[in-house]
């Protein structure tokens, strides 16, 4: 029986008999490397696509955050004088009837003279009617029609801060100052002027709002 050694086996294997060993082909490393590269590229594309979808649904990352910070600006309302409120009349536009509901004589005239010095117009001066005579226990009652509650009566109230304000069904625009038993004197001129200035100052209202970032 002869012995053969294949040339490409380098003499490593000896063949005897009629059976020969199988010849294995060398693996092609090029295809393996190509497959690995293709897999990595595919995974990279999938990851990039996922990040793009996340940016779409979250609003664009840092850029969206920057836009959002601009949208979160604080809104401030500017204070401006109210245009709808009617201006209050000045003392010279108000006619006051000074009536004495006490037993002290000359009190109505003295009070009327002081109001005249402070700029008010003086109407009737005398004793109160039976409805109020000897029945006003406080410092006084300021009386006028219902519309005077927001016009002349508040102005007159600055001269006698503790007086009670009432309304009746009169037709005229004049108002009454009915002196009560608790009356001593009008509010001091300095305090009255200060109250009148505060009353005449326009009240601030919210107007167009501005955003500050």
Can you tell me about this structure?
The protein has 213 residues and is an alpha/beta fold. It contains 5 helices and 7 strands; from the N terminus they run H-H-E-E-H-E-E-H-E-E-H-E. Strands 3-2-6-4-5 form a 5-stranded mixed β-sheet. Strands 1-7 form a two-stranded antiparallel sheet. The protein is rod-shaped, with a radius of gyration of 51 Å. The model is unreliable at 63-68 and 79-84 (pLDDT under 50).
Could you give a short description of this structure?
It is built from five helices and seven strands; from the N terminus they run ααββαββαββαβ.
Task: Report the sheet-strand fraction.
Answer: 15-25%
Using only C-alpha atoms, the radius of gyration works out to 51 Å
The termini sit apart by 101 Å
Give the overall form. rod-shaped
* Helix count from the secondary structure assignment: 5
Largest sheet: 5 strands, mixed
Number of strands: 7
Helix content: 25-40%
Strand order of the biggest β-sheet: 3-2-6-4-5
Mean of the pLDDT scores?
A: 77
Structural class: alpha/beta
Low-confidence spans: pLDDT under 50, at least 5 residues? Answer: 63-68, 79-84
Secondary-structure element string: HHEEHEEHEEHE
Map the helices and strands:
Elements (H helix, E strand, L loop, with lengths): L28 H30 L3 H10 L2 E8 L13 E6 L6 H11 L3 E7 L12 E6 L6 H6 L6 E5 L6 E5 L9 H12 L3 E9 L1
Parallel strand pairs: 2-3, 2-6, 4-5
Antiparallel strand pairs: 1-7, 4-6
Annotation keywords:
213 residues, alpha/beta, 5-stranded mixed β-sheet, two-stranded antiparallel sheet, rod-shaped
